[in-house]
Amino acid sequence: MATNDVHVRRLILRCIVIGIFLLLAGRVAYIQLFDTKYKRLAAGNVLRYEVQYAPRGEIVDRNGEFLVQSRECYDLMVTYREIGKRGFDTMLLCNLVDMTKEQLIRKLNDARSAPRKAMLVTNYIPKEVKVRLDEYKFPGFHTVYRTARQYPRKIAGNLLGYVGEVNKSDIEREPDIYKSGDYIGVTGLEAAYEAELRGVKGVKVLERDTHGAIKGSYMNGAFDSLPVPGSKLVCTIDARLQAFAEELMAGKVGAVVAIEPSTGEILVMASSPTYDPDELVGRQRGNNYMKLQNNKRQPLFNRAVKAKYPPGSTFKLVQGLIGLQEGVLQPSRSYPCHLGYHVGRISMKCHPHASPIDLRGAVAQSCNAYFCYVFRDIIENSKFGTVKKGLDEWADYVNSFGFGRKLDSDFLGEGPGYVPTSQFYNKRYRGYWNGLTVLSLSIGQGELGCTPMQMANLAATIANRGYYYIPHIIKGIEGRDSIDSRFYEKQYVKVDKEHFEPIVEGMWRGVNIPGAGTSHGAYLPGWDVCGKTGTSQNPHGKDHSTFLSFAPKDNPKIAISVYVEHGGFGATIALPIASLLEEYYLTDTITRPELVRYVKTLPYNPRRYAE
Questions:
Q1: Would you state the pLDDT for residue 151?
Q2: CA-CA distance, 403 to 421, in Å (whole number)?
Q3: Which of these three, 217, 235, 253, is where a domain ends?
Q4: 121 is in which domain, residue-wise?
Q5: Nearest-CA neighbor of 261 among 536, 594, 491?
Q6: CB hemisphere CA count around 63 (13 angstroms)
Q7: Are residues 321 and 181 part of one domain?
C-alpha cells in the first residue's frame, strides 16, 4: 500500500514539473514568435523614428496667382533620456529659440514623464536658427522639418481659413492619419479641402550607438519613406478683385459675393471686417486669435456664407417671377401707388414715383405697393383654398431659388437662411392670421432671412433666365481631371424661362435709363448692366444697404450682391461698391476714382460695433 502511494506521488510530481516546463516553454515560444513588445523596446533603445511632415498643398487663384504658400520651418523636439548627465547651456538654448528659462523647464518636466518619447519644445523655428542648433548639438534635442502657411496677398482670411493643431476628437475620428502634434485645417478652404491639402507623412529611421548618440540612417534608409506633398488647389477667386472688394469694404460691416453665372464659380467672397491670415500663423497665433475672437465686430465670422440678412427690396424680383408663373400677374398689368400700400391700419410706405405702374417700371422704381398687390394675389389665390396653403406654395417656389436651405457649395459652415411657412405663423399666431399679417414678406422683410451668397446666386439665376450652377470655390485640384460633378449640373427653379425677360428688362431700365429707376448709379457705358437696389429695414438702427446686379444683360460674365449693415439706402453705398467691382472685372480698369474715394470716406461708425 505504501509502495502505491509513493508511485502516485511521483506521478503527480512529474506531472507538475512537466506542466511547469510546458508553461515556461510556451511563454518563451510566445515571446520569441508572437509578442513584439520586447522587440519594440529593444528597437526603441537602438532606433529613433522621426516623422517627416508633408508640405501642405498650395492654393492659387483662377489666374495662377498664389493665395497660400508653404514656407520652411522646424519643430524643436527633446527626448529626455538622451539628455544624460552632461547637461547643456539652458540660457544659450533659450536665447536661440526665443524662450524663457521657465518655459523650457516646464517643457522638460513634461518630457520627463515620457523619457523615451520625443516631445515638442517649441515650433515655427526658422531655418537660420535650425542651422545654429545643429552646430551646438544640444544633447537630447533635435529638429523636425515642417512647413508653415504664408499669404502673399494677405487677403481672404475667412475664405482661406487657417490651420491649427489637432485636438483629441480629430485624433479619435481618424487615428490612422492624425497623431498628437499634427496640424489640420480648422476653417475655410483649409478645412473644406483638408484631405487634398494635408498630403501623406513619411518617416526617417535613425540608428543610435550605445551612448544614445545618432550614428546615422538605419540600414542606409531601407525602411525610410518620403512624405507626399498635398495637392495644389486652383481657386475660383480672382485675387485682384477680392483685394479690391476688401479695400472698398474696409471700415464697414457686411459682405460681397460675386459669381460667374455660366459656371457658378465664385469670383469674390469678401466678409467685412476681415483679418490678415498671417496673424493666425506662428507662435503668436493663440494671442492673435483671442484678440480677433474678442473683437465686437467679429472678424472671424464669415458673413458671406453665414449671416442671415433680410434681403429687402432685392427680393421683389422673386415675387414678380412667382406671380408671373402662377398667372396672377401679367407684365403689362399696372397697380396704383399712393406713396405706398394702405389697407385699414396697415401702411407699407413707398417713395414718390409715377402711378399707376407696370411690372417693368415697378422693378426699376422698386415700388413697394406693386409687390404687396402681387404677393397677396399669389398667396390668396382661390385655387389654393386657404392662405395657409398659398403661403406654403409660395415658400416652395422661394426654396427652389436656393433660399431657406444650404446651396450645397464646397464651403463648410454655409448657413441656410430662413423662409417661413404656415407652420411658423400657426405657432406664432395660434392659427389666426391672414395675408395682411405676413405682408412684410412681399418686400423681403419680416422673418425672411438670406445669406449674401444666396442673394448673389439669385442674381446669377436671373442672369441665366431660370437656372443656376451650385456656387463653388475650387476650380481644379492637382492630379484630378475635374471637380465634383454636382458643380456642372444646372439647377432649375420653378419659374419658366419666358417669365424672366420682363424682370430683366426692369432691372436694365433701372440702371440704363436716367430717371427711370433707383439704380442709375450703376451705369457702365456699353455694358448693359442690370441691377436692383434694396434698403433693408433695421429695427436696431440705420437701415441696411444692399444691391444685386449682373452684367452684361446678355451672355453675363458676373453676378454680384453687396450687403452693408447700417449703410442706409441701397443706392448710397452697396450700389457704388458693386458698380466699381463690375467695372474692374469687366474692363480691367477704374474710370471713376472719385467714386472710390467716396466709398472709402463715407462716414460709417455704428455704435453697436464700437470696440
A1: 95
A2: 13
A3: 235
A4: 52-235
A5: 491
A6: 8
A7: no
Instruction: Write the CATH number for 322.
Output: 3.40.710.10
Q: What is the pLDDT of residue 31?
A: 60
CB atoms within 10 A of CB 546: 34
Domain co-membership, 213 together with 266? no
Number of domains making up the chain: 2
Burial (CB < 10 A; 0-12, 13-18, 19+), residue 547, is: buried
CB atoms near residue 6 (< 10 Å): 9
Q: Which of 153, 312, 165 is nearest to 235 (CA)?
A: 153
Q: What does the pLDDT average to over 276-296?
A: 93
Report residue 574 as a C-alpha cell.
Answer: 452697396
Phi-psi region of 54 (alpha: psi -120 to 50; beta: other; left: phi over 0): beta
Report the pLDDT value the prediction gives residue 605, as an integer from 0 to 100.
Answer: 47
Domain boundary among 185, 219, 235: 235
Q: What is the pLDDT of residue 91?
A: 93
Q: pTM of the full predicted structure?
A: 0.88
Contact 530, 551 (CB under 8 A): yes
Q: What is the predicted pLDDT for the residue at 608?
A: 40
Q: Which amino acid is at 150?
A: Q
Percent of the chain at pLDDT exceeding 70? 92
Between CA 179 and CA 183 the distance in angstroms is 9
Measured CA to CA in angstroms, residue 401 lies from 129, 408, 438, 478 at distances of 56, 13, 20, 32
Cβ within 8 Å of residue 239, ≥6 positions away: 61, 63, 65, 67, 153, 155
Q: What is the band of 607 on the pLDDT scale with cuts at 50, 70, 90?
A: very low
Among the listed residues 562, 551, 555, the one whose alpha carbon sits nearest the alpha carbon of residue 584: 551
Question: What is the mean predicted confidence (pLDDT) over 159-185?
Answer: 92
Q: Strand pairing of 233-235 and 254-260?
A: unpaired
Nearest C-alpha neighbor of 471 from the set 483, 460, 482: 460
Average pLDDT over residues 501-507: 98
Residue 105 belongs to a domain? yes
Q: For 272-339, give the DSSP string.
A: ES---GGGGSSTTHHHHHHHHHH-TT-TTS-HHHH--B--GGGGHHHHHHHHHHHTS--TT--B--SS
Higher local confidence (pLDDT), 199 or 20: 199
Q: Which three cell numbers stand for residue 569?
A: 439706402
Instruction: Assess whether 313 and 439 both reside in one domain.
Output: yes
What secondary structure letter does DSSP report for 543?
P
- The reply to whether 23 falls in a domain is no
pLDDT at position 32: 64
Same domain (yes/no): 371, 385: yes
- Paired sense of beta strands 183-185 and 163-165, if any: antiparallel
307 vs 453: CA distance, rounded Å: 10
pLDDT digits 0-9 by tens, 81-129:
888 777 789 999 999 999 999 999 999 999 999 888 889 999 999 999 9
Quote the percentage of the chain above a pLDDT of 90: 74
Pair 466, 531 in one domain: yes
Closest to 402 (Cα-Cα) out of 340, 284, 496, 315: 315
In a domain, 28, yes or no: no
335 and 405 within one domain:
yes
